[in-house]
Write a structure and sequence with these properties.
Layout: H1 2-21, H2 27-50, H3 60-73, H4 77-81, H5 90-97, H6 99-102, H7 108-114, H8 116-133, H9 139-144, H10 150-156, H11 162-183, H12 191-214, H13 220-223, E1 230-232, E2 238-240, H14 245-266, H15 283-300, H16 309-327, H17 332-338, H18 344-375, H19 380-394, H20 406-409, H21 412-422, H22 427-450
Antiparallel strand pairs: 1-2
Amino acid sequence: MKALIEHAETQRFRSWRDWWIEPQSDNRGHHRAVSVICCSGIVVIGLLIIFSPRGLFYDEEAHLGALLLLQEKGLTNDFLRQLLVTTGPLLPVIQYLALVVTKSSPFNLVGLRLLNLPLIVGAVYSLHLLFKYKRVSGSASNAAVLFALPLVWMVSGIIFTESPTLLFLSLGLLSVGVLSDLLVSDNRDDNARQAQAFLLAVLAGLCGGLAFAGRQTAIPFLLAAPLLAVRFGAGREIQFVRASLVPVLAFIITGAAIPAWLIWVWKGATPPSHYFVNDGLKIEHGLMNFAFAGGMFLLLSPGLLKMSLRSWSLLLSGTTALNYLFFRLDIWFLTRIARMFLPVGLLDIYKYVSTGLLLGLGIGSIICLLRAAWAHRQDFVTLYAAVVTMIILAEAAKITFVFTYRYTVTAAPFMIWLVSKYAVTNRFRLARLIIAQLLGFMLLFDLLYLAKIP
């Protein structure tokens, strides 16, 4: 009898586990559920913005100042030199073009915040077209996962420059995906194909240049352009695509035009008011960037971070101990959230332990991203997305002023493509997406309603 009871309990556990873990037989139903969960996020963001307080938050004052400066001086070198933000002119230019709509709103500030939403929707639609072109099952739902990224919530509810940057990076990734197929096509010697490849290369470069004008951390999209000339075989052999020479040059030259102009005017990578931002090197900022990306991977597709339990245990315990005993690094963002739940006496321990765990997650994410890039080296878009993601995350080490989650957001379109490669159509995925949406809601609610800066 005891054996029968134990067997029944085991079967019940397996049934429960299988219900969560096993892939659902109804793929259409799963993708429909993913779309509903993710698209609900953009609706909630809109409602939070509409009913948000009218005060300015964080960098909003500087970004509105950039818009006023653009109205006064136009898109001139004087305007670029007098910018009081760390970023380029893309956001004020888009805001200026949208003034006809935003000024008609009874709340101009709310109108400018709402401007983020069509830009994010445009980014999702571009990713949808890429998934559809690559014939990925559930193209719309896979693209809509961008709405579920908690970090995307945070930059979509406030006047930040990440939303237009994500739009142009997504358009650029779509262009690169189509371009890469044209360059290895059997008909690539055809004049029409060559013309299409050239135009797509110019479009991709233009998108990369405009993305740089929104957030300089987008530059790796252009730095990875030479990958278009390389194809990996099943082993370690590498093939160079000669037909890619002209398109790659067109990509790089077109893409470099806007960054070169801005760097020449600024005499550096940032406006003169923020020269100090890139002074020195902070490796921990790069590791934190990988850690935040790793956190997003855990929510959206933990299979990407698959390592043995022993490896993760050794890594996380080691970095936590080192940080608590020696480095004493603290990420303010984590402490801010913990203040809502923890007593004051535990905050000191929490901030060093949580940061130590993030350092371990960052190192683990580097290992797993390198492994993913090698495993998918014959899939050009995945290889490109992995390389760009790694460079974007690593370059935060050169931003020494302060670490912020906004450095991670730039990699979002490429992360969404990587996530799709490891996604499993089970109920556990749906649960994680709901958790991601709830976390995004909490973070944006905190920014808009609880963290007002006087």
